[in-house]
Specification:
This protein has 150 residues and is mainly alpha-helical. It is elongated and about 65 Å long.
Amino acid sequence: MRAKITYFTLAAVLIVYFVLVGTRGYLLIREGTLLTVTFGVAVLILPAIGLWFLWHTTQFARKANLLAVELEAEGGLPVDELVRTLGGRIDRDSADEVFARRRAETEDTPDDWRSWFRLAVAYHDARDTPRARKAMQHAIALHDSRAVRA
């Protein structure tokens, strides 16, 4: 729950920032000279990119959470079996061992979104965020394509 509150707080701060920057860009364009219009358009591009990124990140998180809820209802969420250090960090060897099992599971059932979800969690536990995101995107795509066929 704390992560959601932090996410929505940061998203709200970003939206306020985008509005402030967008207002400045609009004022520059309204000035009407070639230089201010050029700067105004450039200033408006940044909030547009930021809003696009925020939208896609929010959609990704929403869809991943929906998969987690569905998997939890089925009793298929991965069990936290990782060894942790005294400081609470995940032991690297433990994460590698769980990752190897999840990868083998995914190789055995490559069309199952559930195994890709669990693989994404294992990637995250192994601190490989880019691959965790790609695996979760693949799980979402498989889940969405299954929903369309059904």
